[in-house]
Amino acid sequence: MSDRLRFAGRLRKLQSRDAALLEGFFLSLDAETRQSRFHGAVNDGFLRRHAAMLIGEAVVYGLFLDDALVGVGELVLPTDRATGKAEAAFVVLPSARRRGIAGRLLNAVLRSAANRRCRSLMIISLRDNWAMRKLAARTAARLSIAFDVLEAEIAVPAPTALSFFRETMADMSDTMVSLATDRVEESVRRTVSPA
């Protein structure tokens, strides 16, 4: 696979303005992908509630190819800060797999977890989710299997000045792109339908 294809796309943190986009992404998942990501069959109502919860309570990254959201990484921060144990989940559309997307999402989630002083990251998946097992193995995760569930616990490194800088710069870049896009859209609207 060429590096151009493997590392194509734009990774950015999703914000409240992306709520409908995230919901649409989850609703577009086929039955097999839903089963794999959510450990069972889930209906559209569940997916809508999950998307709304994420936007309000989690750090969510999206990877875009040709302006289409094709992968999502979720970081749910610990409710008990004393444990320092956060939870992460990932899903990539079948048509976009095997391009390194899950790895890029994992790196972004790990950096965010470190910057929020989490000590470990839990990834829970179905036992036969080989892509997730491979992803977890790349991080030297501690794996445990019980029945049909695989739990991977990844030690999160301590934050550094560089990790804070990288997240801040990525967020600033996203803001600048968003502002520029908004201005172009407004200019086009004024041109197409003058007052």
Describe this structure in words.
With 195 residues, this protein is α+β, with helices and mostly antiparallel strands. 46% of the residues lie in helices and 24% in strands. The protein has 7 helices and 7 strands, in the order H-E-H-H-H-E-E-E-H-E-H-E-E-H. The protein has a 7-stranded mixed beta sheet, sandwiched between helices. A hairpin with an 8-residue loop joins strand 3 and strand 4. Helix 2 packs antiparallel against helix 4. The protein is globular, with a radius of gyration of 18 Å. It starts with a helix and ends with a helix. 27% of the residues are buried. The N terminus is likely disordered.
What would you say about this model in short?
The chain has 195 residues and is α+β, with helices and mostly antiparallel strands. 46% of the residues lie in helices and 24% in strands.
Summarize the helices and strands and which ones pair or pack.
Layout lengths: L2 H4 L3 E4 L5 H9 L3 H8 L5 H14 L1 E7 L2 E9 L8 E8 L8 H15 L4 E7 L3 H8 L4 E5 L2 E7 L5 H32 L3
Helix pairs in contact: 2-4
Radius of gyration: 18 Å
Q: Which oligomerization state do the chains in this entry correspond to? A: single chain
Overall residue-averaged pLDDT value:
84
Structural class: alpha+beta
Which percent range describes the beta-strand content? 15-25%
Order of helices and strands: HEHHHEEEHEHEEH
Strands in their spatial order, largest beta sheet: 1-2-3-4-5-7-6
Measured distance between first and last alpha carbons? 51 Å
Give unreliable regions as ranges. Answer: 1-5
How can the largest sheet be summarized? 7 strands, mixed
